[in-house]
Batch of 2 targets.
Target 1
Amino acid sequence: MENFFATCPRGLEPLLCEDIAAAGATDCRVVPGGAHFSTDWRGCYALNLHSRIATRVLWRVAHGRYAREDDIYRLALDAPWPKWFDADRTLRVDVVAVKSPLKSLEFITLRVKDAVCDRFRADKGVRPSVDTRDPDARVHAFLTADACTLYLDTSGAPLYQRGLRQKTVDAPLKENLAAGILRLSGWRPGTPLIDPMCGSGTFLSEAAQMALAIAPGAGGRGFGFQRLRNFQLETWKTLLDAAQEAEKPAQPAQIWGSDISPSAVRAALANLDRAGLLPAVTLSAGDILEIDAPAPTGILVANPPYGERLSDQEELAAFYPRLGGALKRKFAGWNCFLLTSDPRLPKLKRLVPGRKTPLYNGAIECRLFGFTMVAGSNRRAARG
């Protein structure tokens, strides 16, 4: 068994632990932004392949106390890097610190990189070159007030990069956050789902993959563990073959998407078509204030706009009440989930949320508000 740490969007840690358990791992311990756990390499590969929530899966390779930068250098120098990857692999080092007394993360990054290269030079007579854009091997250092942990990244590119998105619109939602919101909403394949502000189609793509049992890592992207010296090709092939055999043929899945912007609808169509998911989704152009519900009951998810300029704030203050009215008229019987960083949304929509979940969209603190639309709720909500 090896020790790992998986990262995820803040607020989704319990869902990440569910994915970790499903991959066969044990001892999941949640911290803000991720979870520690133990598993074998099969479990590591399975989590990279199947988790819709994880951002990265990091293999813990060293841990020690420090008081100054040289202590971190020695910790990294003592780690047997040539045992884990070859000198012809390119390298990148990233450092994250919480309450560290050291002044410069850039200098610590340089010291860790120097230690890795010095260990290679001592053991092999050659050193890896640095590639900060598309490295073969990623080393992560995490510093607390007095301890440093070193990790090797088994994921490579972030796991939310499914290899499916071709076109984007402004402020696209990351795929693992979209998948987490779908799970938090209680949506399951077979339940009618609509995103009436679909943008480039992230919610739609994640839902379609779930409906068709497509593993998020099975789309042809590569992984960091494939470049490590201990890569178990047969284990990986067995997992990947099983995932691909479980996939269902693309077919209608009671998933609808629309957007007031024709260019956004075109972007969503291109992304779904490129991913082979278009048959599962019904797309159209339409204003959320005017469209009808596609089924008597179901789940609505949306990421409404939120503004930073005063003019945006004024426009949204006028838009939110109209949105609340439209949902009450058109989507009675539906459960609606709206992600926003604007705390005014429930009050201005004149609706009382049944659920409120703190989430982070990147560095932006948001709330996922859940509303149950009941016929005739307009008057009751106004009184509340």
Target 2
Amino acid sequence: MSNPTQLTPDFTIGHLPSHHFQVSAATPGQVVAEKFEQEPDLPGVIITHESQVLGMISRVKFREQMILPDRAEFYGKHPIRSLLDFIRIPPLMMEENWKIDDAVQASLNRQKDLIYEPIIVVMENHSLRLLDVQTLVIAQAKNLSQAYKIIQKYRIERQKHLAIIQKEQQKLRECHELLESQVIQAEKTQNTPSFQEVAIVKQAEQIAEMNQRFVRIAKLISSEGRQAFQATFQGANSICNNTDKILGVGKAIANDLETVNRTSRTIREAIEQVRHLAVQVAVVTNQMGSQPSGLSQVSLEIGRLASKTFELGTQMEQIASRFKLRVHELTEAARAGANVAKSVTIKIDRAEMALLELEELISEKDFNSLPLGVQKSVSAHSLVKDIEHAEVAVSELEDIVKQQNSSQYLIEKIQQALKSKKP
């Protein structure tokens, strides 16, 4: 029999005091009667057969049958199952995790003569226990009593909080009334202008006059700045177009260089074949005193290889010429970008003049500002110097290309490779 010290709303019927009295179906009724006499608190007995629950006989139903002399002698000698078959009361079985309120509701939903019949509680370890309905109802009453105490506690706290809220509302009303009185007082004193208000009006007139001067200066800056920005936009478009052209030429040069690489590999293979044939000719010449018939064929192959090498050299010379032409196109595009950049700097100089005039007007009123015109002038002169350096570099690149014969240089490299590969 279990007996928890204190119930909580989360408790289940498994936590309530219960009894364990279980017999087999073949147990004589006299044994059950003696057990009831020894333990008056037992609410009933569970009857099983091969671990299966056949039913339950409560103490009340057992006494109703055993109080009669003829039945007491009969059922006392026979197995308890015979009495269970006579009574035929279906047991109410519940898992131990049933809530107390749900168990009470299920018990009260039975027939009137079965409401107070004990409940069979199936524990988690599959053991069986008997729960008296009176114990279940008392547990529910305790839960309701605890809930009522909690509700009363919350009601008292609610009254306290309501009192605090009412005090705060009273303070708020007092503050609101004080604010309204201050507003009315301010409206009364607003009709008579003070010394500070007169000074503010004078300052407002001076600010309005200065705003007119700034409007005139802004118009001047707007007209000059519009022209400078339009020229800058056109120059940016031209530079972008030239950049696309340079990228296209660069891709074409890359393709030609790939052709040069393939040609170089072919020349290397031809050189290897020439070397191999030369070695074969030398071996045959040493072994045979007179010139064999196969030597003419070898000589013919060597001539073909030489012709092939010559054709490859011609192709490389053409590629070098195209490379020279495209480098010239690159220089022209760079010069066009430089001219556009120069025109942009001229427009920027005009805008600088307007900014300088703005600085002079602002300095008359003792305003602190950064010398933007000086900074922009320095950056513009730096940009012109960079453009001039770029033009010098492009001219030097073009002179180098004109002076150097790329095809002759490649043919000389091939001839040096042929000499180094001779046996």
